[in-house]
Amino acid sequence: MLSNHNTINTLNTYHYFHCFWPKCHFKTHRKDILAEHQLIHSNSKQFKCDFHNCNKVYTSKVSLFLHRTSVHLNVRYVCDWSECRKQFTRKRSLHHHKSSVHLNERKFKCNEENCGKYFAEKSNLIQHQNNVHLNVRYVCDWSECRKQFARKRHLKQHKSCVHLNENMAYKLI
Predict the structure, then answer these.
(1) Exposed, middle or buried: residue 147 (CB in 10 Å: 0-12, 13-18, 19+)?
(2) What is the pLDDT of residues 111-121, one digit of tens each?
(3) Does residue 155 belong to any structural domain of this protein?
(4) Across-strand partners of 77?
(5) For the whole model, what pTM was predicted?
(6) One domain for residues 119 and 156
(7) CB under 8 Å to 144, separation ≥6 — which residues?
(8) Cα 20 to the center of its chain, rounded Å
């Protein structure tokens, strides 16, 4: 017979704390991690680097830690594959690099009929599905431009290069 204590522990393993922010799908088992995550949405930067008068501030402990290790301590993870020697500030990035570049691992498969392509990153699979199968386009909403892009970052680049420079030139006249 199970005790109440064991039943409660079993139930808690499935309990998640969800982010309150609309369209954010972040969830965690720990309240403290959720609280730190939610600082991202509020742009509250309360984690300050005190390393030799740096004074940069970050929204999370993780971001501060990555800053300290990569900038101030110059910690690098080096790819030891053949003569690659590429360097990364995160161990996770090194592992991803090895699996996708050197081992050519493609873990994410497109399940669309007659496609079946594989991708190293989930984001690339989603981008492929949006662009190829769903024909998703990002449209420039600047004045009467209406130029379309397959990738959101290309739209952002277009806006900053074309329209924001245009706008700055207009202000200078």
Answers:
(1) middle
(2) 988 998 998 88
(3) yes
(4) 88
(5) 0.46
(6) no
(7) none
(8) 19
